[in-house]
């Protein structure tokens, strides 16, 4: 009987989190990182490992930086 109660309890907790979180509007609390400069870094390009990529290469262009 205890083996059944643990997964059932976890399932109920997940349903509660989904019930509370899904109706919320994500635009109400904007990300504090929007409009901030990207951190300084360099990374090798996937196509050419001997070349480097840095944020200065994207100056003046719109780009998405996923951390």
Short description:
The chain has 67 residues and is mainly α.
Topology:
Elements: H1 2-21, E1 43-44, E2 52-53
Antiparallel strand pairs: 1-2
Structure write-up:
The chain is built from one helix and two strands, in the order αββ. With 67 residues, the protein is mainly α. It has one domain (2-58). Strands 1-2 form a two-stranded antiparallel ribbon. The protein is elongated and about 60 Å long.
Helix content: 25-40%
> Which regions are unreliable across 5 or more consecutive residues at pLDDT < 50?
none
Q: Tell me, rounded to a whole number, the average pLDDT.
A: 85
Query: What form results from the Cα inertia axes?
Result: elongated
- Through-space gap between termini: 44 Å
User: Total number of helical segments?
Assistant: 1
Report the structural category. mainly alpha
Strand content range: 5-15%
Count of distinct strands: 2
Strand order of the largest sheet: 1-2
Order of SSEs: HEE
Largest sheet: 2 strands, antiparallel
Radius of gyration: 22 Å
